[in-house]
């Protein structure tokens, strides 16, 4: 029986994780559930799964949650230290890291340091602290399994010993697929007028609001590019982005002998979640099999003129140090402002670029430097917002 902590249980990935766990009560038991704002939803999940711990963000929410639970046995805690506590607890085996944004970094790192099996959905954590994060995985002998559908696909297409280095195992490049988002065919003039409502309606996936906006600007693919470089120890030039609007092929790996391996499936996050939960075994995910005759698959190169976030992310990865953390923080502020109707859609990459050009990069060799860069970038981005 695997004991599982779900960081971000009330979110889109959290709910899909619980849906897979529901199919396998003999294999998985919910150890801890955490949430930020939707306390009623967290209460509903606690009543259903009766976890050992429930963690909220604000201390004031402890009594709110307690009042909604009609049983003893779930201990309620609050704050980031409590998130780290349930992620590193001796009785927990597996941690689903599904908090959105930089808020997920410390609890995810706590799970890594404790040598857990870490299912990583929270790509922002790896973007911010890639070198430090991957070093901690090695030192603590944690098992890191990618949940992002593209990275899970790549993981499935690589040989087991890929950790030796991509070149050593005969890989020429990774092809990272992107749907292109809801505005793939929009002109600049159309992009200038898009609303949060439109941006949150992804053609193929139902996701949280922040990642939906990231998918619309293609910053999601930029973050995933950085994520792929760290996860698979790839050089930036070994990762190529391909637009594939149907999201049926979730990514590919090209080998030196001319072979290209792909992972295909209906776009449903329960597939990568089940893959990572059971790895190296295979279990039911509740996802129907792909009917190839129903699909016409297309591929295009990305357009970096209309979607400048791609180039910003690639440059950030090439610069290294704290630059990816700065990119991520500026993006989080820009996306929140767009969702609040304080910033036009096309100003998202402009705001990020402003912050990147104003903040010098420093080596990202410790957590304090990374968190300081994150904080400085947020402050600069907030100040730059007043110009819009
Ligand atoms: P979501 O917004 O639906 O859920 C986010 C979860 O994090 C919620 O449970 C929320 O309570 C919690 N949370 C938010 N802010 C927090 C904070 N400050 N402190 C503690 N908890 C906080 O997001 P999602 O779509 O489930 O995405 C989660 C992560 O998974 C993101 O990093 C995203 O990029 C990644 N991801 C999501 C998908 C998807 O299909 N949704 C696919 C690939 C990767
Ligand atoms: Mg993805």
From TrEMBL:
Cofactor: Mg(2+); Mn(2+)
Binding site for Mn(2+): 148, 150, 224
Enzyme Commission designation: 1.1.1.267
GO BP annotations listed: isopentenyl diphosphate biosynthetic process, methylerythritol 4-phosphate pathway involved in terpenoid biosynthetic process
One Pfam assignment: DXPR_C
Pathway(s) this gene product operates in, as recorded in its UniProt entry: Isoprenoid biosynthesis; isopentenyl diphosphate biosynthesis via DXP pathway; isopentenyl diphosphate from 1-deoxy-D-xylulose 5-phosphate: step 1/6
DXP reductoisomerase C-terminal domain residues: 264-379
Domain 1-deoxy-D-xylulose 5-phosphate reductoisomerase N-terminal: start-end pairs: 4-130
1-deoxy-D-xylulose 5-phosphate reductoisomerase C-terminal domain residues: 144-232
Reaction it catalyzes: 2-C-methyl-D-erythritol 4-phosphate + NADP(+) = 1-deoxy-D-xylulose 5-phosphate + NADPH + H(+)
Residues involved in NADPH binding: 10-13, 122, 124, 208
Molecular-function GO terms, alphabetical: 1-deoxy-D-xylulose-5-phosphate reductoisomerase activity; isomerase activity; manganese ion binding; NADPH binding
InterPro entries per the UniProt record, alphabetical: DXP_reductoisomerase, DXP_reductoisomerase_C, DXP_reductoisomerase_N, DXPR_C, DXPR_C_sf, NAD(P)-bd_dom_sf
Keywords assigned: Isomerase, Isoprene biosynthesis, Magnesium, Manganese, Metal-binding, NADP, Oxidoreductase
Amino-acid positions noted as binding 1-deoxy-D-xylulose 5-phosphate in the UniProt annotation, renumbered to this chain: 123, 149-150, 179, 202, 215, 220-221, 224
Family: Belongs to the DXR family.
Its biological purpose: Catalyzes the NADPH-dependent rearrangement and reduction of 1-deoxy-D-xylulose-5-phosphate (DXP) to 2-C-methyl-D-erythritol 4-phosphate (MEP).
Protein name, per record: 1-deoxy-D-xylulose 5-phosphate reductoisomerase
Organism whose genome encodes this protein: Agitococcus lubricus
């Amino acid at each position: 029986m695997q004991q599982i902590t779900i960081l971000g249980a009330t979110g889109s990935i959290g709910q899909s994780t619980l849906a897979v766990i529901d199919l396998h009560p003999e294999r998985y038991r919910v150890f801890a559930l955490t949430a930020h704002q939707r306390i009623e939803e967290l209460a509903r999940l606690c009543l259903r799964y009766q976890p050992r711990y429930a963690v909220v963000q604000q201390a004031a929410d402890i009594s709110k949650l307690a009042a909604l639970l009609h049983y003893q046995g779930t201990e309620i805690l609050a704050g980031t230290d409590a998130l780290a506590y349930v992620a590193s607890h001796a009785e927990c085996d597996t941690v689903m890291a599904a908090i959105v944004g930089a808020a997920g970094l410390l609890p995810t790192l706590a799970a890594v340091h404790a040598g857990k099996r870490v299912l990583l959905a929270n790509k922002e954590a790896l973007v911010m602290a890639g070198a430090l994060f991957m070093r901690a995985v090695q030192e603590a002998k944690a098992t890191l399994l990618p949940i992002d559908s593209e990275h899970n696909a790549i993981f499935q297409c690589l040989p087991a010993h890929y950790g030796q280095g991509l070149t050593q195992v005969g890989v020429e490049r990774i092809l990272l697929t992107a749907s292109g988002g809801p505005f793939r065919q929009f002109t600049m003039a159309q992009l200038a007028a898009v609303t949060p409502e439109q941006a949150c309606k992804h053609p193929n996936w139902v996701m949280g609001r922040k990642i939906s906006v990231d998918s619309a600007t293609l910053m999601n693919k930029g973050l995933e590019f950085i994520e792929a470089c760290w996860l698979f120890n790839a050089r930036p030039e070994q990762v190529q982005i391909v637009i594939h609007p149907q999201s049926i092929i979730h990514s590919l790996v090209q080998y030196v002998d001319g072979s290209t391996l792909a992972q295909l499936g209906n776009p449903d996050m329960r597939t990568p979640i089940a893959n990572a939960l059971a790895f190296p075994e295979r279990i039911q995910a509740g996802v129907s099999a792909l009917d190839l005759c129903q699909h016409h698959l297309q591929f295009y190169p990305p357009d970096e003129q209309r979607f400048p976030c791609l180039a910003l992310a690639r440059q950030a990865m090439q610069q290294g140090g704290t630059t990816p953390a700065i990119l991520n923080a500026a993006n989080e502020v820009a996306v929140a402002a767009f969702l609040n109707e304080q910033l036009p859609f096309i100003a998202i990459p402009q705001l990020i670029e402003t912050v990147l050009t104003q903040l010098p990069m420093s080596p990202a060799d410790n957590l304090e430097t990374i968190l300081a860069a994150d904080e400085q970038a947020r402050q600069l981005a907030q100040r730059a917002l007043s110009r819009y």
